[in-house]
Amino acid sequence: MIELGERTGHAPTRVSGLNKLAMTQALYLGRMEEAEQQLLNAKSVAEASDDMAGLAEFHMVYCNVNTLGGNLDKAESHLAEAAELGEVMQSSATRCFGLTHYANTLIFLTRFDEALVAAREAEELATRTGERQYLAELHSETFPLIDLMRGELASARDHTIRAIEISQEIGAMFALGMAAYVCGKVESLMGLFDSAGERYHLALEMGEATGFVGFAGAANAGLAANHQAVHGTGSAKVQELIATAREPLDHPLGVAMAGFALAELADVAALEGAFDLAAECMVEGMSLKSSSGHLAAPEFMLCSADVSRARGDLKEARRLVMDAADYIDARGMLHLEPRVSLARGLVELTDTGLGWEMLEQAEEEARSMGALGLVERIQRRAAEHADSGSAIRARWKKAHAETLMDIAELIEDRETRRAFLTANSL
Q1: Rounded distance, CA 343 to CA 363, Å?
Q2: Is the domain of 364 the same as that of 308?
Q3: Number of domains the chain contains
Q4: What counts of helices (H) and strands (E) characterise the chain?
Q5: Closest Cα partner for 256 from 198, 225, 210?
Q6: In this structure, what are the phi and psi dihedrals at residue 254, rounded to the nearest 5 degrees?
Q7: Per-block average pLDDT, block size 10, for the chain (426 residues)?
Q8: End-of-domain residue from the set 176, 211, 246
Q9: Cβ–Cβ under 8 Å, residues 173 and 206
Q10: Four-point Cα dihedral 404, 410, 413, 419, nearest 10
Q11: What residue numbers bound the domain in which 277 lies?
């Protein structure tokens, strides 16, 4: 296309070719510097020839390249320009793209209130103009991630289920994969473990269908956590899933989801007692420039605090918990409040033998969100830290047994239900 455009003097063909070459170089080959140069060339030719469509495509490609590569500030400005160009060109598709991806970028920057404003504007425009692809995207990722961060799990799940329905109707495979992954993440928190597993497998299928290997890393990490929640620690399957999940994360298309995946894997490894592996995942996750890195940052802090506590470094554990609490308070990441309370309680228990009130707070916070999976985890860890035969242990064991039965009622598959009760009974 580039050669044809140069030979015929047709600037739009040349611009489109340069944009597509940049996309290929960045997202499939990881050659970011070359891609940047091709994009600058595309912009120069588009501006000189007044090629508005080519300039809009340039902003879209620049956004994709920088978002997936974790350069979110660059992506933000180009998305705003894409949305403005869409208005000038009277192109609903271009404006929907700009607004939707602008909202997603704001989420990755942890600016959730601003993201919601942009998302609602995008939804109104997409609904009015029939741009169902963007409705699928908004309900697969934008709205559910905002709800998840606010601890509104039922609403987040509803959005993803709507996105799955729209995506299947119109054949939007990427939106379907994202909706399935986010739905699995939410359902696992809610204790809907068999359904969550099905969602993660659907995300894997869409990863294969689209070539987006980020789904493979994130969904396999989710499956590892889900399998651990159902079957307990010490399973060879968990180790296999951890290894499988890590494979694609250094691929240019895997980096985008690496923050989510590595935070999940670090947590799974820590619960397994594999602290060196957990630390390795945390170091890798914090060093990668991933679009999901800011969202995953406090999870790395909390996991690192748990590892430090288990290794006896209570001063460092306490510092990390405080850092995580400050981070989520400043950004309104309410879904992590129960984990902060849990971490605080465990540090206090280890240090002073106190901390039971903090664990009760963690339990209540998780229950108020409808996060039964997290409630079970909090109760189990509390019971494990209580003295054998004590009234405190009896209290937590009783609460844990009741939660197990509540979750078991949500698990439709009989074998999964039996495995869950057997593995998790105290």
Answers
A1: 12
A2: yes
A3: 4
A4: 23, 0
A5: 210
A6: -90, -25
A7: 60 68 62 73 71 68 66 63 61 81 89 95 95 96 97 98 97 96 98 96 96 94 97 95 93 85 97 96 87 92 96 96 97 97 96 94 98 97 92 96 97 92 94
A8: 211
A9: yes
A10: -10
A11: 213-291
